[in-house]
């Protein structure tokens, strides 16, 4: 589904990703772990096509095509969803309005008919149960005045409604108490499917107790320096990142 080869990327002219290679197949859940500032959010933003990130070398293929040629909105329509580390507030735009516009844009791109108000509400209420968000949230401005945990849940709701093929969750666990973490994890787990790939970016092992990944990768100094199964996350928790990070410059 996603094939990243020797990816180099800069932010404001500063090299951040320095030869990152990663393959993700449909049905898989990958965790990307790594020290602060190692480039995890940069990777997520480059895949989503966010402004300000320049790819200087390497390749990103998505469903067999060159992802880097697509503008961000086309990436979203092609089934890529990014849940941000810091979800944005959009005063004056209701949650329900944004969700409906987003879901119908994706349906249109897939050649499916748009949902009318009734069918949309049915879908969104079903998904709200899944992520345990009260219905009043629908009519509030997007993320405005939401607590950290509510914002994260709202991101999971967006993901549940949009049914992406490739979901990237950037530190969806940060700032969550244990109950909110479980709700978010249940929501993500309920979206696991053979047709969908999920990439979890996380600094801590904790989330991976609830969302058990198929693969764990360590990103350090702009590259994947170690890959393994779930046990790698447990080992990192015990030994810290210094255990793998010193190898980051090898082979340059
Ligand atoms: P992580 O998510 O792993 O903590 P980031 O991808 O956010 O790491 O950041 C990687 C590096 O890029 C850091 O050194 C950070 O300071 C730098 N960086 C990120 N965004 C910007 C920006 N907009 N301008 C300049 N430097 C940035
Ligand atoms: Mg960070
Ligand atoms: Mg980050």
From TrEMBL:
Ranges of residues in domain ABC transporter: 2-246
A Pfam entry, by short name: ABC_tran
A GO MF term: ATP binding
InterPro entries the UniProt entry points to: AAA+_ATPase, ABC_transporter-like_ATP-bd, ABC_transporter-like_CS, FeS-cluster_ATPase_SufC, P-loop_NTPase
Gene3D superfamilies, alphabetized: P-loop containing nucleotide triphosphate hydrolases (3.40.50.300)
Keywords linked to the UniProt accession: ATP-binding, Nucleotide-binding
Top-level division of the source organism's lineage: Bacteria
Family: Belongs to the ABC transporter superfamily. Ycf16 family.
Protein name as annotated: Fe-S cluster assembly ATPase SufC
Gene source species: Pelomicrobium methylotrophicum
